[in-house]
Amino acid sequence: MKKDLQDGVLGNSTVRHYMRIPLSSLHNGHQVGGTAGINQNVDRKIISKIFEVVGNGITNVGEVRRCVSDYVEKELFRGVPVQKGPRLSNRRYHSTKADLRNHISRAIAAQKYGKDGQESLRKEIEEWMRALQRWARKSKNGLNSLEQEELLSYLKRAANVSTRNAYDSAVAALKNLSLYKDKQNVKNYVDNVWLSCSFRWANCMRKRQVLNTVDTNNGTEAQNKTFKCQYLPLSQDKSVYGLSVMLVETYIPDCHQKYLQRNVQLSSAYRRLNTTVPSYLHDRPPHFIKHCLKAKFSSGDLRECDVLCVDM
To answer: Which Gene Ontology molecular function entries are recorded, alphabetically (predicted)?
Structure first.
């Protein structure tokens, strides 16, 4: 062999690996075979996936399990035959409900700013209200750092005052800024995005609960039922923080998207309208059109003298 190597002659070679495995009867303190995976810890990739799913607003154990199962099958073991994939008894990739529940709780706790639910909610609201700061920092809006701080401070002042007179004064001071007068994009943003809905963010516009008169109708009851039956069961976090985040980040966007979808489907741009319907009723919901047409026909029996004008 040495001479062949010196002469450059390549011979046939065979690679063999020898392993010494003890008998199954010698394994003490742990299982062997298909049940060995029961005592394994959850894989770090699975834990990361659970945190990702919870971050998207899914906290129901069953929904998280389905997402994790799809992740294991379609990403971690893509193209691997079912027979060669991890068994259902393998806890590393097929977590138990207790494992999922524990990691979901950890993921929810990681999203919060502390153990106090009200404090976490307060900080989450501050994060939502940073929309103005993000808008001001965009280079396309043309605001330097001083202008950003100035605009933010004046809007905060208007938001935090407790009386309507103080709010009007704060808004007047905001509109007297050269930043507001000289830059049309700032004026449009403040007027259309903030001042147009001051009742949502200004403290003085909020009515105290004692002064509120709550009138419920079928629409409110239907929305309440939808939230309790379709959204609330999917969340494991029933705290004030968890419910508020679900309302703002999941339920309201879903309702808004549903509203847009239905209006587009009923618009003249989506389908041909009935020519017998008056033009002022175009692009309206069907039940509203029927109500107006029914009232129009009923009003044919009324005369001008039957209508009394009241100056409100």
So the answer is: DNA-binding transcription factor activity
Residue 311 lies in a domain: no
Cα–Cα dist 154/167, whole Å: 11
The one-letter code for the residue type at 223 is Q
What single-letter DSSP state applies at residue 161? -
> Could you tell me if 266 and 283 are in contact, meaning their C-beta atoms sit under 8 angstroms apart?
yes
Asked whether residue 248 is domain-assigned, the answer is yes
Identity at 141, one-letter amino acid code: N
The tens digit of pLDDT for each residue in 264-312 reads 777 777 777 788 888 888 888 788 888 888 887 777 777 778 778 776 5
pLDDT beneath 50, residues of the chain: 209-214
Query: Cα angle at 158 between 186 and 135, to 5 degrees?
Result: 35
Global confidence as pTM: 0.40
> Which one-letter amino acid corresponds to residue 58?
I
Measuring CA to CA, which residue among 249, 251, 256 is closest to residue 127?
Answer: 249
Residue 204: count other Cβ atoms within 10 Å of its Cβ. 18
Q: Please report the sign of the dihedral spanned by the C-alpha atoms of residue 194, residue 197, residue 201, residue 204.
A: positive
Q: Which domain holds residue 254?
A: 238-295
CA of residue 311 relative to chain centroid, distance: 47
Is residue 152 located within the same domain as residue 200? yes
